[in-house]
Amino acid sequence: MTSTTPGNCSGPWAAAPTARTPAVPVAPTPPSGAPDEAVPAEAFHSYRRDRERRARILGMLLMRLEDDHTLALGRAPDVQEACAQAYGPAERPRVVSLRELLGVIGARQWRIRGVDVPALGARVHAHYGVFSPVRGEYVDLVAEAPLPDPAAGGRPRTAFEIGTGTGVLAAVLARRGIERIVATDISARAVDCARENARRLELADRIDIRHTDLFPPGRAGLVVCNPPWLPARPASSLDQGVYDPEGRMLHGFLAGLAGHLEPGGEGWLVLSDLAERLGLRTRAQLLAAFGAAGLGVAARLDIRPRHGRATDPGDPLHTARAAEVTSLWRLTVR
Questions:
Q1: Which tens digit of pLDDT belongs to each residue from 211-245?
Q2: Residue 244 and residue 28: Cα distance in Å, rounded?
């Protein structure tokens, strides 16, 4: 991981190949006005069309769940517990698509196993429809970025986390010593999931999780947001953790940040540059959005992804994924 200041935001980047290993040089930012030539935007749109076509086909295959969440089919797997967690108590028979049922079963396994989060020294468990924190590099950024000092009295006492999901970043902030964290999410499933994880981690007395869109009332010395990274239409509820049409959440966070920061506070925007490398957004557009919101960049920390797709040459978006960098932008009111 490396940190850059506003004066050299376009300079060389460095990355941590694993959570706690030394940084190594990586490629510079792509030109602010041009997409990655090896993976133009059309390749991304073609990839998305193929995924949506597959989703439609699987969505046409329907499965009947009985009034006790069972499948009345020979050799059918036991899906009762998985469906109860996704849908609540069984009341009447229902019909669901095979695609959805496979997602429900997979979510049950994620919920049982959880995801190891080294920054917490614990596991975080995702519910059905809540994006799992399998990409640990963005957690590492929040765990290691220097905390702001709004009143020259040490770390901020209160932090907001916008779009909390599983609550993993709120938990990291609590473990870093912030006394009170208010975490929000527009998804009721995510709110339930984050609350359960906070209880499991014995942090529920310090993390207040609210069902609301974007900001809670008031101001904080630190406001953290890890919005969906790609400005495109999601194909499912789970896709909403990655895809956000026209970057609604990103722009909503930037527009409201100045009004929710204490004097001297910081907003931490955690964002991959994959959209830039796919030609869906330029670096110039992102920086212009900062300026339009009255925000300046105090510094930026960068890290390379460690997930399997980043090194898989068979991935349709391999060129862009192999060069991807995730950044924590430390934003302040100008």
A1: 999 999 999 999 999 998 787 776 666 566 677 87
A2: 26
pLDDT at residue 134, as a whole number: 79
The alpha helices in 133-221, defined as continuous H runs, are: 136-144, 168-175, 188-200
Range picked from 7-21, 225-239, 249-263, 297-311 for highest mean pLDDT: 249-263
Task: Report the relative pairing of strands 295-303 and 207-211 from DSSP bridges.
Answer: unpaired
Q: In the Cβ-directed half-sphere of 310, how many Cα atoms lie within 13 Å?
A: 14
Q: Where are the beta strands (DSSP E) in the chain?
A: 2-4, 13-15, 24-26, 62-65, 94-97, 115-117, 122-124, 158-162, 180-185, 207-211, 220-225, 261-272, 295-303, 326-333
Task: Take residue 218 and report the two structure tokens written for it.
Answer: 């008031």
Task: State the pLDDT at residue 230.
Answer: 82
Tokens of 76: 């059918």
CB 183 within 8 Å of CB 207: yes
Query: In the beta sheet, which residues pair with residue 297?
Result: 331
Note the pTM of the prediction, 2 decimals.
0.76
- Eight-class DSSP state of 216: P
Q: Which two tokens stand for residue 179?
A: 């006394």
Could you tell me which residues are beta bridge partners of residue 16? none
The pLDDT of residue 71 is 87
Of 202 and 134, the one with more pLDDT = 202
How far is residue 35's CA from residue 49's CA, in Å, rounded to a whole number? 20
Burial 182-198 (b: 16+ CB within 10 A, else e): bbbbebebbbebbbbbb
Cα distance from N-terminal residue to C-terminal residue, the chain: 26
- Say yes or no to pLDDT of 19 above 60: no
Q: Report phi then psi at 16, rounded to 5.
A: -105, 110
Please give the Cα distance from 38 to 43 (Å, whole number): 9
Q: What is the pLDDT of residue 32?
A: 43
Say which DSSP state 251 is in.
Answer: H
